[in-house]
Structure formats: C-alpha cells, structure tokens
Amino acid sequence: MLFHLVKKDFLLAKKYWIIMLLAAIVLPVFMHTKLDFIAGDFLPFFLSTLYIIFLLYSTVSMMEYKYKGSSLLCATPYTRKTIVMSKYFFVISIFIGCCGLYTVAALISPVKVGLLALSEVGRTFFLLSIIFGVMIPVQYRFGYEKSRYIFFFLIFLTPFVLPNIMKILQHNGAVVPVSLPFSPFVLDLLLVLLAFVIGGISMVLSIRIFSKKNL
C-alpha cells in the first residue's frame, strides 16, 4: 500500500519529470562553475537536491490541496499513518534519485565534477532531514496554503546566504573547536543515523497532527 501512495505522488508530478531530471544533472555542474572557491562537492549537490525535492514535494502538495487529495484518500482503505509515511518515503526516493543523477553528471560532465563521498551524502541527507523534518509537520499543522510562502522564501534564499556564510568562514579560517574520538567514517555513519532519528521524530509528529485533523 505504501508503494502505491509513493507512486501516486510521482504520477502527480509527472509533468515535471523531464525538467527535474535535467536539473539534477545540469544544476550541480552549473553550481560548480559558480562556487569554485569552496572545496569539495557538498554545496552543489546539497543545493541542487534541495531545489529538486522542494519543487517536486511542493507540486504534489499543491495538487492535493487543489483537488482535496488528502480528504479523498482518507475515504479509501489507506490509513492516515500510511498516507503520512508515504510523504517521507517520497522525499527519500527523490534523494536517492538525485544521488544517482549526480553521479551521472560527474561522469559525463566536461566540467571537473568529483564523485560524491560518503561524508557529502551524509551531510546532505542530514540537512535535508532537518529541513523537511520541520517542513512536513508544519504543513500538516497549518495547511499548504498558509505555510507555502514561508518555506518558498527560505528555500530560495538558501543559495544566496549559505555560500556567503561558507566563504566568510573559509576566509577567516574558522574551524570547529571540537575533537571527537571517532574516525571520519564513523562520524559520517552517525550523521546518517541522526538524520533517520530526526526523520522518525518528524514522522511521528506528522502522524499525530494528521490523525487529529478534521478534514
């Protein structure tokens, strides 16, 4: 049942598949040419993935809001818990797809784009779990119409603010004064586990909110 709900979300956004596929390949390469002062491939991958997930998720939310999709689904054998869970699996599915398409971009791009390291995937997944871990419960609580402008503004402000912050930190030689007794590999795994914990907490909150919502 969960698979069919995730499939339904992809079908709702099918008009944008080609655009998003191209964006997942072209955006990281383009950002590499603009963000060359930052070492590594984290920022281009994070920003491009953030945009793609947000646009696809917002498209599905808009369609369901417009045609009262949640109300109609609740009249079917699908439980509210399953409906909420499908949104999180939808986001994770897009993330996995973006990882694969970024790898394709790194292999075929004429611009030098490095393959993703585990640390870059882990950091991106962690940040996305925070962003959407806040966004999804808030949207269930206040509705798509009330929350869309806030998140639209915040998401599209990110590429203008984050690179400048990283640039300032880099120029000032800022470092995190914390030494942890773990290897980088273990820290990467802990970051991914923490991302799943944040996502799990967010999912529980969303389920509770949606279960009590009067549709």
Word description of this protein:
InterPro entries: ABC2_memb-like. The chain has 215 residues and is mainly alpha-helical. The chain is 80% helix and 0% strand. It has 8 helices and no strands. The chain has helices at residues 2-12, 17-34, 42-66, 69-74, 80-108, 118-142, 144-171, 184-212. Helix 3 (42-66) packs parallel to helix 6 (118-142) and helix 6 runs antiparallel to helix 7.
Please outline the helices and strands:
Layout: H1 2-12, H2 17-34, H3 42-66, H4 69-74, H5 80-108, H6 118-142, H7 144-171, H8 184-212
* Major sheet summary line: none
Helix % is over 70%
Order of helices and strands: HHHHHHHH
Query: Low-confidence parts lasting 5 or more residues at pLDDT below 50?
Result: 173-179
Structural class: mainly alpha
Q: Tell me the Rg in angstroms.
A: 18 Å
